[in-house]
Amino acid sequence: MVPKFVSFNALREALDECQIDTSSSPRIGRKIVDGWYLEGQIVIKDTPRTTNVVLNLIHEAIHHLYPKMTETQVEELAKRTFSNCTTREIWLLERYVDISSRTVNTGHRGDGRLRAAKTNTSKKRKRR
Predict the structure, then answer these.
(1) What is the CA radius of gyration of the chain?
(2) Phi/psi of residue 38, nearest 5 degrees
(3) Are 53 and 99 contacting, i.e. CB atoms less than 8 angstroms apart?
(4) What class does CATH assign to 8-101?
(5) Whole-model pTM?
(6) Could you report the per-residue pLDDT of 36-72, keeping only the tens digit for each?
(7) Is residue 76 scored above 90 in pLDDT?
(8) What is the DSSP letter of 20?
(9) In Å, how far from its chain's centre is CA 87?
């Protein structure tokens, strides 16, 4: 039986049990794929889009939780689980692959602090 979605705590437990690698590009033969799971190791293609990486992470964690599910069932369950996640949960999941350490399409510095909005404080006064 396929559940409606996977709880956030179950996802975190599955990810804690797995080794996550984003340094190498996952390949099956000559084809580069978004990610794969094999015996406790998750390899995910590192892309600038946070949504893609988190969705792939959820997908591969579901493979760890339910090894006998078909690829189509895992894909549907991953999409429903992603839709059910809050913004904070997605942010916590992206920390597993250190997306927030990059500055591409994120509002974070390398240390995880939010970048302050740029303001122009050196405006010259008008001369009268």
Answers:
(1) 19
(2) -150, 110
(3) yes
(4) alpha beta
(5) 0.65
(6) 677 777 777 766 566 677 888 898 889 889 989 998 9
(7) yes
(8) E
(9) 12
